[in-house]
Design brief:
The structure is a single chain. With 204 residues, the protein is α+β, with helices and mostly antiparallel strands. The protein has 6 helices and 9 strands; from the N terminus they run βαββαββααβαβαββ. Strands 1-3-2 form a 3-stranded antiparallel beta sheet. Strands 4-5-6 form a 3-stranded mixed beta sheet, with helices on both faces. Helix 5 packs across helix 6. The longest helix has 23 residues.
C-alpha cells in the first residue's frame, strides 16, 4: 500500500506540512508515526510520518475481506463509506446469519482480523465499522434507546445505575448519549473485557 513519507523534528508542523502538500485533511488519512533519538545524550528527537489515504485502506480492506469470505465459501457485496476517520463497510450476502454469528461474534472476529491486518501493513490501527446489512445499525439504535431509558431512571430515582459490560465502541456511543443530559455524569469502570458504564447524578 502506497504511503507518503515525511521526516522532521517537530511532529505537529510535520503533519501540517504533509496534509498541505498532499491536499488532504486529517479526517481523510491514517497517520503512522515513528520517533528516533540521536545525539550524544539521545536528546534530539526526529519523527518519521507516514500518511496513508483512507480510500486506499478501504480498498485493501475490501480485497482482504473478499479473500476471507471466499475461504468461508461466502459471496458478498460491499458498500463503503468514510466518515470522520472511520471506515464503514457494510456487507450484503445470502448468508448473513453466518457472517454475523451468535451474538455478533463472527462479525466481531472478522473486524478484529481486519484491523490487525491493516496494522501489520501500515503500523497504525484504523477506525473500522464492519456491518452486515443493518445489523449493527439496529444494535446501535437499541443501545441508544436503552441508555436514554436508564438515564431517565437515574434522574427519577437519584440512584446510580451500572450498565452491562460493553466494548470501547459501544461505551463511546453510550457516553455520547449521556453527555446530552446536563444533570448526569458517566464513567467507565472495570477491566477489559469487563468494562461497563456507571450513570450517576452530577454533583454540584
Amino acid at each position: 500500500m502506497k504511503a507518503e513519507v515525511f521526516t522532521g523534528k517537530n511532529l505537529e508542523e510535520l503533519k501540517s506540512e504533509a496534509f498541505e502538500k498532499l491536499g488532504l485533511n486529517e479526517n481523510e488519512c491514517l497517520v503512522s508515526v515513528k520517533s528516533t533519538k540521536s545525539g550524544l545524550f539521545k536528546t534530539k528527537e526526529e519523527y518519521e510520518v507516514k500518511i496513508f489515504k483512507l480510500t486506499d485502506i478501504a480498498e485493501e480492506i475490501k480485497n482482504y475481506l473478499s479473500e476471507l469470505l471466499t475461504n468461508m465459501t461466502i459471496e458478498a457485496n460491499f458498500e463503503t463509506k468514510i466518515r470522520e476517520q472511520q471506515i464503514n463497510i457494510k456487507m450484503y450476502s445470502d448468508k448473513n446469519n453466518i457472517l454475523i454469528g451468535r451474538d455478533g461474534k463472527t462479525l466481531k472476529a472478522l473486524q478484529t482480523v481486519i484491523r490487525q491486518h491493516i496494522y501489520q501493513l501500515v503500523g497504525a490501527y484504523p477506525y473500522i465499522l464492519l456491518d452486515v446489512e443493518n445489523y449493527k445499525e439496529k444494535k446501535i439504535k437499541n443501545l441508544e434507546f436503552l441508555t436514554k431509558k436508564l438515564a431517565k431512571e437515574v434522574l427519577r430515582t437519584k440512584q446510580p445505575i451500572k450498565m452491562d459490560d460493553m466494548n470501547s465502541y459501544e461505551r463511546r456511543i453510550a457516553h455520547n448519549v449521556l453527555a446530552k443530559f446536563d444533570n448526569l455524569t458517566s464513567t467507565s469502570e472495570g477491566e477489559e473485557p469487563n468494562r461497563h458504564i456507571v450513570i450517576k447524578i452530577k454533583e454540584d
